[in-house]
């Protein structure tokens, strides 16, 4: 899978309250959630984001609440992936579980400016800044998580476990 | 010889059926309890229904469902989420469903009902599930799909966290509580200083800490990014278990030479009442160093500080005093049991005489939900756990985090101050 779009760059500690504020946590629908993505950090984000665009952020992206709708809201807004220097742990799990591709890459974040066009070869974790021509390698996920994604996500894994347990 | 292990590693090894685990191992653990509130449950139920072969939940006695965030429901949308959870609880005959009026906030309700215990593994669809580390359990917050998976299997995969030891030296000063200790610790670590890690709280100061203070501290472990925060089990823990009727638990102690990636020593004798100023919980100051910060609202309660001891601390300050004319003070006992105890001890009378609102248990204002949402430019002193931008309402409102003593003192003074400064200016 190749992700391609404009980079929307933000700083450290982008918390789940600014990704999707509590006042919208009465919503479940991805499209409705997407209309309010990052609203409290950047009111213009939803106006400028185009399908396929990527978020590029500094450390501790997604800190705070366990609200899974944070990952869903970004997908709902059209975001195809997030590149950050590091992720908060609950968001990391939620992204894997909801199918939002995420990439940990310190050099990549430093080498990408807001508005740059980037592509990400998701399977190999190779990030290319098309605006500068430079490429970066994201940290490899542990094999278990790669398998989980390849299998189609956590629920498919659970189905396999249920079959194993019933034997 | 077996690898020496931390408390967290021992609990995880036992629940993974292994003799030993090490940080970085990816394991699958058996769960003793799976919790969700109406927000996380609504999404979890939707996902659960997509799992082929999951007609029933794995164990209806080991699931706890607690409406808490937008309850009693504030609008049709949130009422719909609560209804989804209620219907699911009925359909699957979930034994531990705490209806509005019979429960409260999950992190106050579950311990006081003997539903969490030392050595157990607990996950919850709420980031503050780390609270149960206060009793010596491994407890962590997860998203809704993980909850759905756990509903079906009673298992969760995880990466064994490395452990960071926080040592609290010496005793606590007057008006210093668990909230002040954890705000200091988060300041030392930073908001991502403990990402993926287990925090293990130790040291001589812990003997001064009641279970209430320990739950407050474990609750906020997530604010340093931690997977879990855990307290050693001692006589205080065992007395609490006996009082709430918790039986059949296993006590694990960390091995002497267990491995910690970092040890942080905090001298409690030097800690005075703390306040975390916007926009992060690690942005901690001494209350006495803050001057002329006026606030329009005070919130006392919630999952972090909504236990009876917190209510008593607030009442101690508010007794015989009045809330400042320009402040709305909102007191929220964390559960029906705490609320009833407040009534029996005369605390509700103290709060109302002082001019406070006393609310039914709810997470309400903490998540900017209801019961105290802030307008543009308003400031709130709060015993909650997050001061992120827009957390309690308008994006240009501000939240200052503190313990019940400072929140109550501020409610009377009209500006942020501690109990000692209040006593000098407004004697009770």
Structure notes:
The complex is a heterodimer of chains A (167) and B (428). Helices cover 34% and strands 20% of the residues of chain A. Chain B contains 14 helices and 18 strands. Chain B is globular and about 60 Å long. Chain B folds into two domains: 245 residues, Aconitase, domain 3 (2-Layer Sandwich); 152 residues, 2-Layer Sandwich (Aconitase, domain 3), CATH 3.30.499. The mean pLDDT of chain B is 97. In chain B, the strands form four sheets. Chain B has a seven-stranded mixed sheet, with helices on both faces. A five-stranded parallel sheet of chain B has the order 4-3-2-5-6, covered by helices on one side. At the A-B interface, helix 5, helix 7 and helix 8 of A face helix 2, helix 3, helix 5 and strand 7 of B.
Number of strands of chain B: 18
Largest interface (C-beta under 8 Å): A-B, 47 and 55 residues
Query: Mind telling me the CATH superfamily name of chain A?
Result: Aconitase, domain 4
Read across the widest sheet of chain A, the strand sequence of neighbours is: 4-3-2-1-5-6-7
Order of helices and strands of chain A: EHHHEHEHEHEEEHH
Q: What is the molecular shape of chain A?
A: globular
Gyration radius from CA atoms of chain B, angstroms: 21 Å
Record the strand order, biggest sheet of chain B: 13-12-18-17-14-15-16
Q: State Rg of chain A.
A: 16 Å
Major pleated sheet of chain B: 7 strands, mixed
Instruction: Give the class of chain A from helix and strand content and strand pairing.
Output: alpha/beta
| Domain unit count of chain A | 1
Please outline the helices and strands.
The complex is a heterodimer of chains A (167) and B (428).
Chain A: E1 2-10, H1 16-19, H2 30-34, H3 45-48, E2 54-57, H4 69-76, E3 81-84, H5 89-98, E4 102-104, H6 106-110, E5 117-121, E6 126-129, E7 134-137, H7 143-150, H8 154-166
Parallel strand pairs in A: 1-2, 2-3, 3-4
Antiparallel strand pairs in A: 1-5, 5-6, 6-7
Chain B: H1 7-16, E1 26-30, E2 33-37, H2 38-48, E3 63-66, H3 76-91, E4 96-97, H4 106-112, E5 121-125, E6 138-141, H5 144-153, E7 155-159, E8 163-169, H6 178-189, E9 198-202, H7 211-219, E10 228-230, H8 235-244, E11 262-267, E12 274-276, E13 284-286, E14 297-301, H9 302-305, H10 308-318, E15 328-332, H11 336-344, H12 347-354, E16 357-358, E17 379-382, E18 398-402, H13 404-413, H14 419-425
Parallel strand pairs in B: 2-3, 2-5, 3-4, 5-6, 8-9, 8-11, 9-10, 14-15, 14-17, 15-16, 17-18
Antiparallel strand pairs in B: 1-7, 12-13, 12-18
Helix pairs in contact in B: 2-3, 2-5, 6-7, 10-12, 10-13
């Amino acid at each position: 899978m190749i992700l391609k779009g404009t980079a929307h760059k933000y700083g450290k500690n982008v918390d789940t309250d600014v990704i999707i504020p509590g006042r919208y946590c009465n919503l479940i629908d991805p499209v409705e959630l997407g209309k309010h993505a990052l609203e409290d950090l950047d009111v213009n984000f939803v106006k400028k984001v185009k399908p396929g665009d990527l978020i590029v952020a500094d450390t501790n992206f997604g800190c705070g609440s366990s609200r899974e709708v944070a990952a869903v809201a970004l997908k709902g807004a059209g975001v195809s992936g997030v590149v950050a220097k590091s992720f908060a742990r609950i968001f990391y799990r939620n992204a894997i579980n909801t199918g939002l591709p995420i990439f940990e890459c310190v050099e990549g974040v430093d080498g990408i400016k807001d508005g740059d066009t980037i592509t990400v070869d998701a399977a190999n974790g190779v990030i290319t800044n098309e605006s500068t021509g430079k490429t970066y390698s994201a940290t490899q996920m542990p094999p278990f998580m790669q398998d989980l994604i390849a299998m189609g996500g956590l629920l498919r894994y659970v189905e396999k476990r249920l079959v194993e347990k019933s034997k | 010889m077996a690898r020496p292990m931390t408390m967290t590693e021992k609990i995880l090894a036992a629940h993974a059926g292994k003799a030993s685990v090490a940080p970085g191992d990816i394991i699958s653990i058996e769960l003793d309890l799976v919790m969700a509130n109406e927000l996380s449950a609504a999404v979890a139920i939707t996902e659960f229904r997509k799992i082929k072969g999951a007609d029933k939940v794995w164990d209806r006695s080991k699931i706890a469902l607690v409406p808490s965030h937008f309850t009693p429901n504030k609008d049709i949308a949130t009422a719909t989420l609560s209804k989804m959870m209620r219907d699911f609880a009925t359909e699957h005959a979930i034994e531990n469903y705490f209806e509005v009026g019979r429960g409260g906030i999950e992190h106050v309700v579950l311990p006081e009902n003997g539903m969490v215990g030392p050595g157990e593994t607990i996950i919850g669809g709420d980031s503050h599930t780390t609270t149960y580390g206060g009793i010596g359990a491994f407890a962590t917050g997860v998203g809704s799909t993980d909850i759905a998976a756990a509903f079906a299997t009673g298992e969760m995969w995880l990466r064994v966290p490395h452990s960071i030891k926080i040592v609290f030296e010496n005793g606590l000063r007057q008006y210093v509580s668990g909230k002040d200790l954890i705000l200091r610790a988060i300041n030392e670590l930073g908001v991502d200083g403990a990402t993926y890690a287990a925090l293990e709280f130790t040291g001589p100061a812990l003997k001064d800490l009641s279970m209430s203070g320990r739950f407050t501290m474990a609750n906020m472990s997530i604010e340093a990014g931690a997977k879990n925060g855990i307290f050693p089990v001692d006589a205080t823990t065992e007395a609490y278990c006996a009082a709430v009727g918790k039986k059949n638990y296993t006590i694990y102690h960390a091995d002497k030479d267990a491995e910690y990636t970092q040890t942080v020593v905090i001298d409690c004798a030097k800690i005075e009442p703390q306040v975390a100023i916007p926009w992060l919980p690690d942005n901690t100051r001494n209350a006495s160093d803050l001057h002329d910060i006026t606030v329009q609202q005070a919130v006392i309660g919630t999952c972090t500080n909504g236990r009876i001891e917190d209510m008593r601390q607030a009442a101690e300050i508010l007794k015989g005093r009045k809330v400042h004319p320009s402040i709305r003070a909102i007191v929220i006992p964390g559960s029906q049991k705490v609320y009833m105890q407040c009534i029996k001890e005369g605390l509700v009378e103290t709060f109302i005489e002082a001019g406070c609102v006393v609310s039914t248990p709810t997470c309400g204002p903490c998540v900017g939900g209801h019961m105290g949402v802030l307008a543009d430019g308003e400031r709130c002193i709060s015993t909650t756990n997050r001061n992120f931008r827009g957390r309690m309402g308008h994006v240009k409102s501000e939240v200052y985090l503190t313990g019940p003593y400072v929140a109550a003192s501020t409610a009377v003074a009209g500006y942020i101050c501690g109990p000692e400064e209040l006593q000098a200016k407004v004697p009770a």
